[in-house]
Task: structure prediction
Amino acid sequence: MQDLDASKLSVTITMSPGKVPEPDSEEVHNMKTCSDHMVKVTWTDDIGWHAPTIEPYGQLTMSPIASCLHYATQCFEGMKVYRGFDGKLRLFRPDKNCKRLVMSSARVALPTFDPKELEKLLKAFMKADGPKWLPKSRPGTFLYLRPAIIGNGEQIGVTAPSEVLLFIVAVCWPDLSSGTRPGTAPQPPGLKLLASKSDVRAWPGGFGYAKVGANYGPSFVSHMEGRKMGYDQILWLLGSDYQVTEAGASNFFIVWETKERKRELVTAPLGAKVILEGVTRGSVLELARERLATGSTYLTSDIQKLEVIERDFTMLEIEQAWKEGRIVEAFLSGTAYFITPVSAINFRDQEIDIPMGDGASGYYAALLKKWLRDIMYGNVQHEWGVVVEEE
Amino acid sequence: MQDLDASKLSVTITMSPGKVPEPDSEEVHNMKTCSDHMVKVTWTDDIGWHAPTIEPYGQLTMSPIASCLHYATQCFEGMKVYRGFDGKLRLFRPDKNCKRLVMSSARVALPTFDPKELEKLLKAFMKADGPKWLPKSRPGTFLYLRPAIIGNGEQIGVTAPSEVLLFIVAVCWPDLSSGTRPGTAPQPPGLKLLASKSDVRAWPGGFGYAKVGANYGPSFVSHMEGRKMGYDQILWLLGSDYQVTEAGASNFFIVWETKERKRELVTAPLGAKVILEGVTRGSVLELARERLATGSTYLTSDIQKLEVIERDFTMLEIEQAWKEGRIVEAFLSGTAYFITPVSAINFRDQEIDIPMGDGASGYYAALLKKWLRDIMYGNVQHEWGVVVEEE
Result:
């Protein structure tokens, strides 16, 4: 069986190139404009991975009995490509996304591959579309990259697909971590979360840790109900003790002080395989462990040293800390929302307000966001910022 | 917003009709041959349901960022159309499937509709394709009907799709409840089940009760592992007490005697919304309650009266009953596998053998199967067998 092999890539250039929308335009906020090309790789159960292609972006055709339309044999990644302030094009820790896609693929009976080959395809794709769609004249902008794997074989029996398509598209995407949508009233900073009541996103023994479609569609009803009630995201709880897992499609962090006035950055652990192992989550943890310990030069009166803790924690603990004035701040991390401060959590019909530092963001969230932005946009040279060669 | 309206149906007849495969042929076992036409109905968030069409069966085209390919915004139904021994074409309780599809659709943020209109579309579809694909010369045969709803709008943001496609196809399908695949060695009767170990299919607060794609793809890995070990289906357990939920994509029934030697037919309840409310499951329960009570003319030395019980029960209870020789039989019910006897359950690496009545099937399973077949194929006239008018 053939493994995925980026060296077999062939490229067909589009004859009808699209127009790059203005940054922060309505078109960008619609999140439907893709770049000129897409990567496609077919897998079949007889020979494995076929030769990859970069070809003009366009519609997919598939059988009405394609597995992915009935049985959610599908997984994806969300990542971004950044146009740096130094003029360079960068991916952020693409090795993490590529490895996670392999894991997600296996979880829904789709084929695996060498993640390094996928990273090569991402770079080749951005070498083709990056210069036009992220022009050097627009430093500090990004495109959203969506690698996906779908079982497109005709397979109405409940079994693994015999044919699969891996594809990658690049989507013009707004900065959801700041800015307000053009033409709408400015929103107060900070996201308001609604703690889930009856609906449960994921469960031990399930697939909450994998980036598979099956984690998303079933969550939309709760999200829509939350939005109707004036909340931005659902904070997903688990179990009779209201364990905090993740929020919307992001990881959740809280900074609080213990009763002994020790400051902690707390997030849910990966062990039970209930939450997604976010690339931004991991990066926040690594940076915080490295730069927010005793003796760090980043410490100030607002940014005091803290201990980084991955453990199960509950809404009851958050509620208690809130009553005792021990909450420092909270934020979400993820590719889509990046680092976004949380201003309130509704838990059992009670509104828990979360401090917001200087009013626009908690201090830690702002600092972590700056650190990550500096890496993504080349203000500092860091191994996490992987440069894409351009011609 | 327009509701689904079958009276707006338009029909376009295919110019390239297909060939109907021989019953039980290799082609039928491949489950890829569909009839000449398909039903399609578009829904958009501006006007609701558009006019339905019956058109030539063919490929679907959709955007690479269609919601259903990434976020499992998809649900479906499984049902059959039967060519009766009286020459008539019948659906089996189609109102149940149509209502369940409405429920499933809402669970993944897809639009709802009047289920009666869907039933009319199913009948119109089979009026068109039934006479050719289920010829009167082949009484006792069936086609598998697959209504499905997919979010095919371009929607890479995590929100409800703005455009949706409802479609129905008819697939040539083998009789999985009996017969062996042509060209392969005959299988001993009865399915062997492997009780799930770490993987959990569904949980309270999740979506196990809805027929959504998200319940299927993530279960395939367990199924494939089970098959490698020589088992036909996974018996899905839940919780630290090993509650029995459902098996494969079927409901699970056990007949046992209590310690007081009372005979019971037991299956998991619907209350926790963890298992699918199978149409066959409900029909088995209704028939058993009606025909297997004291005084029934169906009772014999093998078919003794029993009490029908929907309650949580565990593998530990099954294990105990097995050790004490109290298990009478077990079977699965569902559209795909119909009524299929179970011959063994592997639980914690111990093989629990289940009695098989006359060797080919438990007595109750055989009787319930006969009763249902008689209704489906018109050997008896019953309100559950809904005749499709043909020209």
Remarks:
- The mean pLDDT of chain B is 96.
- The first strand of chain B starts at residue 10 and ends at 11.
- Residues 6-174 of chain B form a domain with the D-amino Acid Aminotransferase; Chain A, domain 1 fold (CATH 3.30.470.10).
- Chain B touches chain A through 64 residues (CB under 8 Å).
